[in-house]
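Continued from yesterday's entry.
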Amino acid sequence: MASTPTPAGDGSLDFGQAFRFFFEDPEWVKKAIIGGLLYLGGMLTLIILGAGLLLLAIAAGFMMRLIQRSWVGEARPLPAWEDYGGLLRDGIKAIGLTLAYMVGVYIVPGIMIAVLALAGGALSHSGSEAASGLMALAILILQLLSAVLNLILSLYLPSALTRMTLYQRFGAGFEIRENIDFIRRNPKNYFLAFLASFLANLVAGVGILACCVGVFPAIFWSACVMGWSFGQVARHDSFLGQQVTAPAPGV
């Protein structure tokens, strides 16, 4: 168990290790089953009660611990399933950060599209075809803008989550300039981490389409690939290594 961070400084992310590290842990089956059950229970109870957010938050807290352990340089970076209260507290921050950014990308444009659709419907009934056409064009533009913002968010959000995790400050996730600078300093490694996450999500997505029993452990595994990969981006960022000096909790 590492007591102090040992950032690697400059270097390249081991792309293949992003997919191997999980299975090198001697307890990977147990950890995958627990993580998969959390995702399964979270999805089911999210539909029924909304309490699923708590289960999903625990899984998110696990990923944050994984980012910390990856950054520190643990040989076996998968955390143990323990300290569920701490995992929950950390995971709530991750979910809160994600939801806050999603409001701007999904909720605000969605409300605007709904308002324009209602206005367009009213104008079409009143016989104003030109105005109705303009409303339809505005809706299309908003939909395209929302798609572009969604792509930007998917590229940007891992940086915000990683910095929030390592600086141990919720506000660090909203330091947009610093989060973008983190990406700019590590373009190659950040791209490799994003690609590894994308491919892992793709594999998990195939499991969803196939309705396999192991689909939820596969989703959990893909989240771990993302956590490890972006922890490695931070590990190879010499600037971040100088800034974050306190021992990471839970490693």
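--- second protein ---
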Amino acid sequence: MSPAAVPYVCEAKHAGWLATPARRLITDPSRMLRGLVGPGDVVMDVGCGPGFFTLPLAEAVGDGGSVIAVDLQSAMLEKVGRRAGKSGLATRIRLHQCGPDSLGLEDVEGVGPLDFVLAFWMIHEVPGRARLLAEVFRALRPGGRLLAVEPRVHVGSDEWTGTLDDAVAAGFVVVARPRVAISRAALLERPAA
């Protein structure tokens, strides 16, 4: 799938800045994810790009956990695969190319309910935001959480309110509004049954 077929998608050829050490000074993945992911968890990084958050997630889940790195572009997933191989984390990471209209998790073998999902700076790139949030809700176990983070420069307060409204309509409860540099963020939870 060409990213040109989906509006607002950052193409892989321009994604080098997404995994630079300078970016870590602004958004430290380990600090941001602390307390949200632990050993043995099954997590998903939606719109993983070149894996800036995927690798720290894989470190956090340990040998008993796994990370599903999901992206629309095969070139992004190739970048994640190369970085995971170099870091020795490839066995904890499953690469999954989604379509423009669905995460397609039914195509990922052996995926049970997820403990945690990260959607960092990507929801605004999805034409079917409500559909995406409903699909993530269904994939989470009761008590599972979604950290949704959007860039302030692209997502105004009205659009962010719409995102949160769509999340609540999908069944999520907003449990926290963490501070993330130059971003709007919410920690959402699928309520326990």
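Helices lie at 21-26, 29-33, 54-61, 74-87, 129-139, 157-170. The first helix runs from residue 21 to 26. Will compare against the first tomorrow.
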